[in-house]
Design a protein that fits this description.
The chain has about 350 residues and is α/β, with parallel strands linked by helices. The protein is about 40% helix and about 20% strand. Bound molecules: NADPH dihydro-nicotinamide-adenine-dinucleotide phosphate (NDP) and ligand LTNE7NMQ. This is Homoserine dehydrogenase.
Amino acid sequence: MKRGKNSMAHKLAFIGFGVVGQGLAEILQDKRESLKNEEGFEAKVVAISDFRKGSLYHPQGLDLEAVLETVQTTGSLDGYPNTDGLITGWDSLQTITQSNADTIVEVSYTDVQTGQPAIDHCRAAFESGKNVVMTNKGPVALAYQELSALAHKHQVSWGFEGTVMSGTPALRMPKLALAGNDITEIRGILNGTTNFMLMRMDEGESYGAALKEAQSLGYAEADPTSDVEGLDARYKIVILAQHVMGMPLSVEAVECTGISQMTPELIEQARAEGKRWKLIATAKKEHGVIAAKVSAEKVPLDDPLASVSGALNAITYETDLLGPVTLCGAGAGKTETGFSLLIDLLTIAKARETVRS
Ligand SMILES: NC(=O)C1=CN([C@@H]2O[C@H](COP(=O)(O)OP(=O)(O)OC[C@H]3O[C@@H](n4cnc5c(N)ncnc54)[C@H](OP(=O)(O)O)[C@@H]3O)[C@@H](O)[C@H]2O)C=CC1
Ligand SMILES: N[C@@H](CC=O)C(=O)O
C-alpha cells in the first residue's frame, strides 16, 4: 500500500559507526526511494560521532553516499568533503545534546560490566527531548526501569529491537502479536557468534578459526569474550525477562557459562549420543519468581533448536493461550541488525504521523 508523503525528514545522529551503524546507513541510502514512497519515511543523517573514525555534524544533513564511500575506503571519516557549515570533532555527548537531531542511533560497543557510556548517552538524549534507537544491549539490560521512566517523562521513544536476535522481532512479536498471553517460559539460542562457531566446529574447524570467521562476518562483539563466555546471551535473556515477561531480573542473578571450554572431543561425544551442542538461554517464571540461566547444552537432534545453524537464532515462548510459539531468524549481521534500527525508526515515524493527524 502506498502511503502519503511525510513532509518532515527524521534527523538522525549516529553514536558509533562500525558494522551496524554502516549497515543502517546503507539501508537508508539504498532504500531511500522505496522508504519514501511506500512508508512515507524520510531520514536525514545530520551527525556521526565515532570514537576513532572521527565525527561530522551538518545541521542540513550529511551526504550519506560520500560518508559511506569515505569510511569504507579509508576507515575514517576524516576525508569527508569539507562543505560550508560542517562541524567536526564533536564527541558523543556534544553530538547528542548540541546537534539538531531528533533521534539518536546508539550503536557503540556494548560494555557488559557497566553499560557505559551508552547509559549516559540515553540519559542525555532523553533529557534533551530526543528519541533513541539502539542495538547496544548494556542500557537495556542494566538500566531498563530507569531509562523507560526517563523516556516516558520526556515523552520520547526508546527503541531497542536489535538488542535481542538482531532484526528478527523477538521483542516486538511477543509484545504485539502475543499480547494478552501469560508468557511463562522463554528458551532459545540468542547468540549468533557461538551458534556459528558450534556449527563450524561440528564441521571440523578449530575453535580459534571458527571465532575468527565469525568476527570477519561482523557477528562478534568488539570483545568476543562476551560471546564465547555467554555474557551477551545473559544480557539478552535479562532484556527478554524484563521487557517481554515483565519480570525484574538482574544480570548477576543469571547463572552463566559459555562455550570457551568446548573441544573436538566434546563435540564428538555429543554426536555419538545423537545430540548437538547449543548455547541455550532460559528464563522461567514460577509462582511469581523468575529463574534464568545460560549454558551449553547437548540438544537431541529432534529438538527444533538442534537444526538452527550458523548465525541464526531461535526462541520459544511458552504461552498460556497458544502453547509454545517459536520464532527463528537472523541473530547477528550488518544488514540484519541495521534493519532492526530501521523498524524502530519506522515505528517512531508512524507514531509521530498518528499524533499529527
Ligand atoms: N554486529 C552485530 O551483529 C550486532 C551488534 N549488536 C550491538 O550493536 C552495537 C554495535 O555493534 P557493531 O557495529 O557490530 O560494533 P563495532 O565494533 O563494529 O562498532 C562500534 C563502533 O562504536 C564506536 N564507539 C565505541 N564507543 C564509542 C563512543 N563512546 N562514542 C562514539 N563511538 C564509539 C567504535 O569506534 P572505534 O572502533 O572507531 O573505536 C566502533 O566504530 C554493539 O553494542 C553490539 O553489541 C547488536 C546486535 C547484533
Ligand atoms: N555478538 C552478537 C551480536 C548480536 O547481538 C551475537 O553474536 O549474537
